[in-house]
Every structure is written in C-alpha cells, then in structure tokens.
Amino acid sequence: MNQKKHKAEAWVRPEIKALSAYHVPDSANFIKLDAMENPYQWPEKMVDDWLAVLREVSLNRYPDPSPAGLKASLAEAMGVPSGMDVILGNGSDELIQMIALTLAQPGRVILAPEPSFVMYKMIATFTSMEYVGVPLAADFSLDMGVMLAAIEKHQPAVVFLAYPNNPTGDLFDRDAVHAVIDASPGLVVVDEAYHAFAGDSFMDELGKYDNLVVMRTVSKMGLAGLRLGLLAGPSEWLGEFDKTRLPYNINVLTQVSAEFALAHREVLDKQTQQICTDRALLMTELQATAGVQPFPSRANFILFRVPKAKKVFAALKEQGVLIKNMGATEGPLAQCLRVTVGTAEENTAFLTALRQAL
C-alpha cells in the first residue's frame, strides 16, 4: 500500500522544495575561521559597563520601532551623507529581503555577479523573482561586456554588487561600478558588509545617483551576535522599503548594545586595524606556502586555491581548524577554500595545520 503523502507536498511551493536550508556547520571545539567574524572580545571593563547598561533595559516593553538615536549614531559612524535616509534591518539579510519584497512583480529580475553572496539568489527565490547571475572574469573582476549586456537584456529591478565581494575578497573597479549604476534601469545596491577592512566606499556617492543605495552591517566590526544591518540612501527608496519592514524588527537588547558599542568606537577600530595587519601577514605566509594560490583580499578573509581542496578541508577539520570549503570542482571557485583572519595564535594554528594537510 502506498503511504499517503503529507499535506505539505501539495502546498509548499516547488521552488522552495527545491532549496536546501542555509546550513551553518557545528563549530564547537574548533578554531573557528569559517564565518568572517571578528575574533576579538571586548576588554573586561567594557563588558562590565555594557552589562550595567543592560540591567536598565525594560524587557517587558516592546523595543522602539524606529530608534532615532541608534540610527543617528550609525549614520555618524558610517559616514552617511547629510540628506540621506537610514533604515535598519535584522542583519543585511532582512534588508535584502525588504528590497526584494518591495520590488517583486511577476517577471522582474534580481541580477548580481557570480560568485557572490548566496542570499541574493536565495531571497530572489523566496520572493518569486527571477535571479540572473553574471559570471565574473577569470581574475574575479566585473566582466563589463557580459555585465552590461545582461543588464540590457534583463532590465533588472535591482542589481546587487558586494564591495568587497564575498567570497572573492576583491574590490570591483570603481569606474566599472559607476558604469553599472549608469546602465541599470532599476536600483543598484552596493553591499559594503566588509567596509571596515576595505579602505574604500560608495557611501559618499549617495545623492549623486537616483538609483543608488548602500548597505552596511556591524557584524564584521565585532558585533555579529547583534544581527544589525543598515541601508542608506534617498528617502524616495527607503520610505517604500520601510513599508515591508516587520514591526519591532530590531530587539531592545540589540538597540542598546549597538549604541553602547558605537560609543566605544575606538575599541572596534583598534580591532579592525589589527585584523588588517594580520590579514597582510597571513597573505604573505600563504603566498610562501607551496601549492597554495591565495587571492588578493580587501575583506577580513582570504580565498585560496589548493590541489584536492576537499581533502585539505577534511584534514584541517581533523586538526581542529574549521574554515569554509567553497565546494566547487569546476568554475571560478574550483578547489577553493576561504579562511577568516583570526587572532595571531589562530592564524598560526591554521597555517601549521594547512602545511601538514598539503
């Protein structure tokens, strides 16, 4: 007798059935260098002061639905130009989803270079938009002939450009980004999740184009646990996106903690500077390691290629080091792994394990 199908089989959208849930590997008891996190804790005195602030929070009350003080602090810290609006999201992921929900109509397209941040494609699927991935050039730069042709053909409602790009770590040429903005009929989102390490930004270009917004997150600044993202741009766009934001999307602990952290920006900046210094040292060591091809990075991670990446990844795990296996056997990410820049001790442990794994 055939087993009766569960009702979910009849009602769940086919495109959702075809997806795999976003997988986060178990990192317990590993040196964790797989998720582009800041490896540093706060000084003990700062933690004590933060806990004192949290004791005053009224958990029985809903959070401020649109925290003006936090938005002002973030706008100042992020260098948002005067006259531009700001909205907050539960991480960048929610902001991407808000944009897609606002622009989604049958046949409309989200376009992005590939490889890039996987959530652009996933959220296109969630919102029933068509996703068009445009291959990068062999050196991971924007292939402008292909990119501009794709924009002309598909007339995307929104183009996402990660700057620096994830997982490649490079900054696209500024003139190429300008050309994409000029050619795009709809919105262009410059996703600056790794701005703290990049030394470059399109934030000061806001207001010069009527189809440009800039997205940031505090995650890479050492605040990943807060899940707080920021979108900056003209009110004509952001006022519409705000209509798809769920009420009270930024919880009260995140609001208070983020304001506290931004008031101690010197601690975050010092950690960022250390990561940039250690990134350069790690790059030098990888370049000097036989069989390893690292790619230039302006983020807090380094993409590198090794023979038999799957075996190397497994050998690293056996030695207690967790990095990211890009899982590709062909294409631009073939045999590539990605390592987050950790503390000096973590980087040394990774290099030792990598050399034993090769």
Give a verbal description of the structure.
With 358 residues, this protein is an alpha/beta fold. The protein has two domains: 8-43 and 266-357, Aspartate Aminotransferase, domain 1, CATH 3.90.1150; 59-263, Aspartate Aminotransferase, domain 2, CATH 3.40.640.10. The protein contains 14 helices and 13 strands. The chain has helices spanning 8-11, 14-17, 44-54, 68-78, 91-103, 118-126, 144-154, 174-183, 195-198, 235-241, 252-262, 265-287, 309-318, 344-357, and strands spanning 31-32, 85-89, 109-114, 130-135, 158-162, 187-191, 212-217, 229-233, 293-294, 301-305, 321-322, 324-325, 336-340. It has a seven-stranded mixed sheet, sandwiched between helices. Helix 9 (195-198) links the parallel strand 6 (187-191) and strand 7 (212-217). Helix 4 packs parallel to helix 11, helix 5 (91-103) packs across helix 6 (118-126) and helix 7 (144-154) packs parallel to helix 8. The longest helix has 23 residues, at 265-287. The termini are far apart.
